[in-house]
Design brief:
Layout (H helix, E strand, L loop, with lengths): L19 H4 L12 H9 L7 H14 L9 H14 L7 H11 L4 E2 L4 H4 L1 H13 L6 H15 L12 E2 L2 H10 L2 H8 L7 H16 L2 H9 L2 H7 L9 H16 L2 H8 L2 H17 L3 H20 L10 H10 L19 H17 L6 H6 L2 H6 L16 H18 L4 H6 L2 H13 L21 H16 L3 H9 L2 H13 L7 H18 L3 H19 L12 H16 L3 H9 L2 H11 L5 H11 L3 H9 L8 H16 L19 H6 L11 H8 L2 H11 L9 H11 L1 H19 L6 H69 L1 H18 L28 E5 L3 H4 L14 E5 L10
Antiparallel strand pairs: 1-2, 3-4
């Protein structure tokens, strides 16, 4: 007990913890925390609001302690201090320097105490960056310049990382993401209105906007929301000696085009002020710019103008005079002009000038879509300038001229432009002798002159080492010209021998053994289309097409059907071929006869069977017009495919496919399902019957044009609805509908008339009402009769099938009976040859049968009767001195016969016998 009362001495507690900081292990700057609340209270408290020296000391202390950056959690207090200073700058300029120092620190990476601070304080960071943009209201040049530098550091510049104890700096990617979420880009655009008189600050802000829009679509969208394109473009020509204002403005517009909404940009730039500003800038760079930099800037301006004209055709290019000026710059090299703008202007062969030429041609194409542009095109002699390139190429170039490769590229671009512009200025086209130029170029393309194309750029595709690119665009231009249907132009082509010239090229191409690529097929299609347009509706031109043309189209009709799906454009070429047959052959009796002699109808039907459904309509129309020649029907009826398909069954197959596509109601066996709507499809039914003006086609009439059933009906009228023995019953069921197509369609039209009158509240007079009622009732009764006929045909076919089935089974039974009879006969034969008693019985039965078959038997008892039978001969055959013996086959006996005859393979042995010699045979 005494020992327990003794108190134990307590162990000492160590109160000193030695950390990394005490050991000197930590690296980096240590942040000394400042009480922001005291600083804010000092600045805002009414009692200390005028203590400027204390304010400056507090701000300097804050700046000294946070030289490496602000903590994310302190950003709210930091920007409260900045806003207080910003509001007092105008009264007390002494706040400017501290503001600039704080803003400079704000440009450093923000500091995080924990990794999660980046997410936790993200919204605070976004709002703080937005506050930087709002500080542009401070009327101080130094502050604004520092703001631009701070924002540039936050978004773009990669600052050297400083090590801070217990803190981590935010990454550049994080800062960029926060800037994109803020509205600083929009604020900066709006602040440009405050900087009209301060060009230096404006240039820095534009530089900042250029960086913000360089690779950031969100920033571009927010800038566009503030109408950045319009604001910047309208003031890019302000006086500025270094040229940086124009350069920065164009760069920003380029960034907006690359990363923003092009339609919105073009809409903002399509105002009169912006177009005028673009015109002034382009004209200034065009006439006064000589450096590489100036030329690039000039081309950039032209690209922007092209985009505006493409997206906004209503942009005032004509009203501002920009369009006329562009035409002048595009043509001054080829067409002499005394305009002061181009009097001393020259373009070299540099890459920038070469690109300018192509851009000018391109913008002319875009502007020509406006009808108001046509008089300016004629006034500017654009066709004369472009046609100067429509000539044969040369392998060498003169001094200060385009190189052969450059000339070829400009030439192809010019011909591409002529495809759009020439049809708009037909009179100028004829004045420039366009037809002659094109035919001469076409002759050069197929001639033997040595020229190897360079095949550069888009238009030169497939033209390296040959003249195909020139020929391709020459044919494009010819097709564009003849397509406008100007009689004088087409007649001039014919008078200059275009038909014969094109036929010679096609005849050579059709017999070529080399494989055609997509360019060759495209050119041949264009030539066939040109011939179709030239010959359509003119007998004289069809006669010029003549035998040579018929040979050409026949050769193309022989094209392997498998090539139609090759992707090289053969389907387009086949369409052009069928169209040329329709336009150049049909209607000229000599051409039709030559076409028929060459089995052209057979080729057309072969093509109809193998081609895709979208070609059926054209081929059927061509065949229908060919049927006006009486000889065609015989060819159609004589045609049979490799699978013995006739023309009638082929037309019925297409009819079924067409009705299936239209959604016409039919039963499973093909009969009419709804007698009230025997022809109506789903689309026509959904459209319903709507009252229309008298000059508008109703749905029933439109249906005739939109599908092929009317053509198939017309063809059946030519070849007949009967006398097609190869048709199955299901096909004949369809023929019943085809035969009554016109009656059904007339009834459908009258039904529409009745429904329209009811919807419009119009009651016909009594005789007309009765007539309409009779017509509708007659049409429905006709449909019922056709449906009954179809059912009868199907039932008859069913009965015929049953009868044929019974006959087949009867034949099978007869075959079995004959086999059984043969087996029984063989068994009797074996029994007779094996058993003598059976042979005698058989002989007796035979004699009885012979006697029973005789009508008269009295002569047998006559004295004069002599029997021819051999006595005691027990055989069932009729013998003479020579008999034929059927030996048992060796495969059955396996050895010699019972008569001791040798083992021979002869089935029949002839044996000579003596009179009255008995022999046992069956």
């Amino acid at each position: 007990m005494a020992s327990s009362d003794v108190q134990k001495t307590p162990l000492p507690v160590v109160k000193h913890v030695i950390g990394d900081d005490d050991m000197g292990i930590k690296k980096g700057v240590k942040i000394q925390v400042v009480n922001y609340s005291k600083v804010i209270k000092l600045l805002t408290d009414p009692h200390s609001v005028t203590l400027y020296e204390r304010h400056l000391n507090a701000l300097q202390k804050l700046i000294r302690h946070y030289q490496v950056g602000f903590l994310m959690k302190d950003l709210v207090q930091v920007f409260k201090i900045l806003n207080v200073c910003a509001d007092r700058v105008q009264e007390q300029p002494l706040y400017i320097q501290p503001m600039m120092e704080i803003l400079k620190i704000a440009g450093l990476p923000f500091l995080k105490e924990k990794t999660s601070d980046g997410t936790a304080y993200a919204q605070i960071v976004v709002e703080s960056i937005s506050q930087l943009g709002y500080l542009m209201r401070v009327p101080s040049k130094e502050v604004r310049l520092q703001l631009a530098s701070t924002l540039l550091n936050i978004f773009s510049n990669e600052l050297p990382k400083q090590e801070v104890q217990d803190h981590q700096a935010s990454s550049r990617a994080y800062n960029m993401a926060m800037v994109e979420k803020s509205d600083v880009a929009e604020t900066l655009v709006k602040s440009l209105a405050l900087l009209e008189q301060d060009i230096d600050v404006k240039l820095h802000i534009l530089d900042l906007l250029q960086n913000l829009s360089a690779f950031s679509a969100p920033n571009c969208d927010k800038m566009l929301a503030a109408e950045a394109a319009s604001r910047i473009c309208s003031r890019m020509n302000d006086a500025e000696p270094t040229g940086r204002l124009l350069f920065r403005s164009i760069e920003i517009l380029w960034n907006l085009l690359e990363n923003g909404n092009k339609e919105e940009i073009a809409e903002q730039l399509s105002s009169f002020i912006c177009i005028k500003a673009l015109q002034e800038a382009f004209s200034q760079q065009m006439t006064s710019g000589f450096s590489h930099y100036d030329r690039q800037l000039r081309n950039d301006l032209l690209v922007i103008a092209t985009l505006i004209a493409t997206v906004c055709p209503q942009a005032p290019f004509i009203e501002t005079g920009f369009a006329k000026q562009l035409l002048l710059f595009a043509t001054f090299q080829e067409v002499r002009s005394h305009n002061v703008l181009v009097r001393h202007l020259k373009l070299g062969t540099s890459i920038e000038d070469f690109e300018l030429k192509k851009l000018l041609i391109n913008i002319i194409i875009v502007l020509s879509k406006d009808v108001s542009m046509v008089p300016l095109l004629a006034e500017g002699h654009i066709l004369l300038a472009l046609f100067s390139y429509v000539r044969g190429n040369e392998n060498v170039s003169q001094h200060q001229e385009w190189t052969p490769a450059q000339f070829e590229e400009v030439q192809l671009h010019a011909m591409s432009a002529l495809c759009t512009v020439a049809p708009l200025c037909v009179q100028d086209y004829m004045t420039c002798q366009g037809n002659t130029r094109l035919l001469l170029l076409l002759e050069w393309c197929v001639g033997k002159e040595d020229f190897a194309g360079h095949g550069n750029a888009f238009h030169g595709y497939g033209g390296r080492g040959n003249k195909r690119a020139q020929m391709r665009y020459c044919l494009h231009l010819m097709r564009s010209i003849v397509s406008i249907g100007e009689a004088s132009v087409n007649q001039d082509f014919v008078d200059q021998g275009a038909i014969n010239q094109i036929l010679d090229i096609l005849l050579s191409a059709s017999h070529s053994e080399s494989d055609d690529d997509v360019i060759d097929v495209e050119m041949q299609s264009d030539m066939l289309s040109i011939l179709s347009i030239l010959c359509e509706g003119d007998i004289h031109r069809k006669e010029l097409f003549g035998e040579k043309g018929v040979k050409v189209v026949l050769q193309y009709l022989k094209t392997n059907p498998k090539k139609l799906c090759s992707g090289l454009g053969y389907h387009r070429m086949m369409l052009a071929t069928v169209d040329s047959i329709w336009c150049c052959v049909v209607g000229a009796y000599l051409n039709e006869d030559l076409f028929l002699e060459g089995q052209g109808v057979f080729f057309l039907l072969d093509l109809l069977q193998t081609c895709s459904a979208n070609m059926h309509n054209l081929i059927l129309g061509c065949l229908l017009d060919l049927c006006e020649n009486a000889k065609t029907v015989a060819h159609m009826l004589a045609w049979k495919s490799d699978k013995n398909t006739t023309v009638a069954s082929l037309l019925i197959k297409i009819w079924k496919q067409e009705e299936q596509a239209l959604g016409v109601a039919r039963n499973e066996n093909g009969t009419i399902a709804d007698t009230r709507k025997p022809l109506m499809g789903v689309v026509q039914e959904k459209a319903g019957i709507v009252p229309l003006p008298a000059n508008s086609r109703s749905q029933a009439i439109v249906d005739v044009f939109e599908n092929m059933r009317a053509k198939i009906y017309a063809l059946f009228c030519k070849i007949g609805f009967d006398d097609h023995p190869s048709l199955s019953t299901s096909d004949q069921v369809v023929v019943c509908i085809i035969e009554k197509y016109l009656d059904f369609k007339q009834g459908e039209v009258w039904k529409e008339v009745t429904s329209e009158l009811e919807q419009e509240g119009v009651r016909p007079v009594t005789p007309d009402e009765e007539a309409l009622s009779v017509i509708n009732r007659t049409t429905e009764e006709l449909a019922i009769n056709v449906a009954d006929t179809q059912v009868d045909m199907l039932e008859t076919q069913l009965q015929q099938d049953l009868l044929e089935e019974q006959e087949m089974y009867a034949e099978i039974r007869e075959n079995h009976r004959q086999k059984e009879k043969a087996i029984k006969r063989w068994n009797n034969y074996v029994a007779r040859t094996s058993n003598y008693s059976l042979l005698k019985a058989a002989k007796t039965d035979q004699d009885l049968s012979i006697n029973a078959s005789r009508v008269q038997t009295d002569f047998l008892d006559s004295d004069t009767y002599h029997s021819t039978d051999l006595a005691n001969l027990q055989t069932t055959t009729f013998q003479s001195r020579h008999v034929n013996i059927d030996s048992t086959p060796l495969e059955l006996t396996g050895g010699p016969t019972l008569l001791g005859q040798p083992n021979e393979r002869d089935i029949t042995n002839r044996v000579t016998m003596k009179e009255n010699t008995p022999i046992f045979v069956s």
